[in-house]
Design goal:
136 residues, single chain
Length: 136
């Protein structure tokens, strides 16, 4: 777990610079089939280093209830200005999180590491048993 956490932090971009963004338009879309869940997506633009960048259909938030998403949409009208964080090496990569989601990804991978190891161990045991049964 510690190795997965450390490796993710070492490999994931760590320099995210703030930039002011502006909402052009928003819309609510179903974000998964089968499970009711909704995303508030926005067409936005931002400037970095004197260059203007646009991001169509950028996911602002994700909620399970459509009513909650409609309520949040009222808080994101066209013309609203807000801060996005831009990866210093790739100005097309943006995040609403100051670290680009780096810490959240590292924690998630660290928590999933034991499950991955257990799955590999179980598959190995089953494979060894199958090989022994077929040879004996």
């Amino acid at each position: 777990m510690i190795a997965a956490f450390t490796l993710t932090l070492a490999l994931y971009p760590d320099e995210w610079l703030p930039a002011e963004a502006e909402v052009i338009a928003t819309r609510i879309e179903s974000s998964r089939e089968g499970t009711p869940s909704w995303a508030l997506n926005a067409d936005i633009f931002y400037e970095m280093g004197g260059t203007r960048y646009g991001k169509p259909n950028y996911k602002i938030l994700h909620q399970s209830l459509r009513e909650d998403t409609v309520e949040q949409q009222r808080k994101w009208p066209a013309g609203k200005r807000f801060v996005v964080y831009v990866e210093s090496d790739d100005p097309n990569a943006i995040s609403l999180s100051p670290d680009g989601g780096r810490e959240g990804l590292a924690v998630t991978l660290a928590l999933l590491t034991p499950a991955f190891i257990i799955a590999i161990a179980l598959l190995s045991v089953l494979l060894v048993k199958r090989v022994r049964m077929s040879s004996g």
